[in-house]
Amino acid sequence: xxxxxxxxxxxxxxxxxxxxxxxxxxxxxxxxxxxxxxxxxxxxxxxxxxxxxxxxxxxxxxxxxxxxxxxxxxxxxxxxxxxxxxxxxxxxxxxxxxxxxxxxxxxxxxxxxxxxxxxxxxxxxxxxxxxxxxxxxxxxxxxxxxxxxxxxxxxxxxxxxxxxxxxxxxxxxxxxxxxxxxxxxxxxxxxxxxxxxxxxxxxxxxxxxxxxxxxxxxxxxxxxxxxxxxxxxxxxxxxxxxxxxxxxxxxxxxxxxxxxxxxxxxxxxxxxxxxxxx
Length: 278
Known about the structure:
There is one protein chain. By secondary structure, the chain is α+β, with helices and mostly antiparallel strands. It has helices at 5-17, 30-38, 40-44, 57-72, 82-93, 102-142, 191-194, 207-214; strands at 148-150, 156-161, 173-182, 187-190, 198-201, 221-226, 248-258. Strands 1, 2, 3, 4, 5, 6 and 7 form a seven-stranded antiparallel beta sheet that branches. Strand 1 and strand 2 form a beta hairpin. Helix 1 (5-17) packs antiparallel against helix 4. It is elongated. Residues 1-33 and 263-273 have low confidence and may be disordered.
């Protein structure tokens, strides 16, 4: 069973705090402590760069951990009493006896995990609805622009430049350069940034790519607008940059159709081998 965001955040803080006592000094035997105290003057003379208005490493470390914990706990912000959380952390770091027994902690953990799951589902559904509405509105407007063609499936494309080579079949392996962005213009993948074209079987990518690239003669550059149903659908890329029901934009350049004996490494082996199915 997956840990809750709370457990992850506290565990992260514990990793930073591991090996330190309540005074912030390294734990260990007396010899180690004495050796450290001998370096105290040297440590004080360190030139610490001021970051975020904080002049000491301790302040900066503390703020970083707090910032990461805050982000991890954002989903549970209405279910947490920060004063109690701080109290529990301080007690744990001091090695004091916990107010909860192991059995009580397990009961709360299971309940909190259920709360997190429910909130994650609610958040995903709200995002999916928002993305669906925005995508439909965008495509309705975009489809009226000069040069934009809408196919029967809902795919939209625009010919930037048309090559004179052959058009690939569904069974072919292709070599392409591409950049993928969300509707707000954020790039989530780009073979141009990697300076390496992607090679993959056309049948291994999402339906919008299969249809769009099959329309392109080798040497062409197209712009593709792919609705969610032809892309990553209701799931998006969990934990990745593509949200549920996201409409995607791709600038695609079809470089060539790769012959089986000339593909070299297995098709799709190039870094970021395109918008694959999942």
